[in-house]
Structures are given as structure tokens and as C-alpha cells.
């Protein structure tokens, strides 16, 4: 059999197993990025307020980003042991840089005129943040989340070396099998597909949450519901 036939045979015989590992792989990636967003977005906002701290924060996150993934997993494994939590913590560290940097960039790139308009309207600092700064910087922040999630999906594949499972299990198993190419592809193709779908999904979510999109929908709805002229004879 050629590779495509072997690949089809593997999927037909192990479809449930592949779907289970796909789901497990995605959850690990999503959790890592989610926890990084909880920390990274407020950090990006904070250093946008106190810009002198930005160099220190970016230096730390840049250093973390340069650590090889296997080395990071090995160090964390010594502290936390084998399993999913080690991979999620590793993904948390790797996701911080794109999230913090994009949040910081999105906030500081907002024109001062918008902020002054908010102050002139009597808005508090919290209101300016939630009603002006975050909506205007949303697309940049979402780009950081998209980058972080795609990176996380790739790194999660090596989580198999610390017993975390995921699609990396299938890829590594293929290196020791007689029909190894087909099995490697059986794990690599869903991994690549997951990264593409995650990027498209977050891109769609970005458009849905975009203030410009909401304004367009609202305006369109207003035009459709506008009262028509009543003619009297």
C-alpha cells in the first residue's frame, strides 16, 4: 500500500483514538494560552501606564521565549513531574510574550485625542480603559492571542515526552513503526489543521467583537427599521 492508503487505513481503524488525542491536544494548548491571557493582558495594560517597566518585562519574556521547548519541559518536569500540568505551565510561559507585547502595543498606539475626548466627557480611568482603550486595541490584542495559540499548538506536540499525551503521541509512535510515514502524518495533519482552524476561529471572533463591525451592524439595523413615509391622499 502507498502512504495515502496506509493513512486512510490508520484513520479508519483508530479514528476514535485520534479524535480523543486531538481534543486532549487542543485543551492543553487552550488552557496554556487562557492562563497566559489572564496574566498577560493586565500586565500589558499596566506597563502601558508605567512604560519604564516595559523594558524589564519584555527582557524577561524575551529570555523565556529563547529557551528551547524541550529544555523548558525538562526543567519544569523536575519541579512538577510528568503530566499535563507541566505542558500547560510551559505553554503559559511561551504565550506571555506575544500577549503582553500586543496588549502593550495596542494600548500605547491609541491616539491621544480619543483619550482626551473620554476625559472631557467625564469618564473615569476605568471607563476610559473599558470603553475606549480596550475596544480600540482589540484587534492588536487578538492578533497576540492568535499568535500565542498557534505557537502553543506546535509546542504541545512535544508534550508526549513528559507523558502529557496529545497528537504528539501519534507522531512519536510513527517514528518506531514499520509504516511510520503514514502514522507520523496521521498525527501531523490534525496538528496543522488545528492550528489553521484556531487561527481562523480567533480571526472570526476578532471581527465579531470589533467596534467597527458592531457599528456597521447597528447602522444596518437602524436603516432597515427606519419608519417609511406615509402618504395620504
Automatic annotation (TrEMBL):
This is ABC transporter permease. Gene3D superfamilies: MetI-like. Keywords: Membrane, Transmembrane, Transmembrane helix, Transport. It is a multi-pass membrane protein. Residues 22-202 form the ABC transmembrane type-1 domain. It comes from Metabacillus sediminis. The chain crosses the membrane at residues 26-48, 69-93, 136-162, 182-205. The keyword tRNA processing does not apply. The keyword Membrane applies. It is found in: Cell membrane; Membrane.
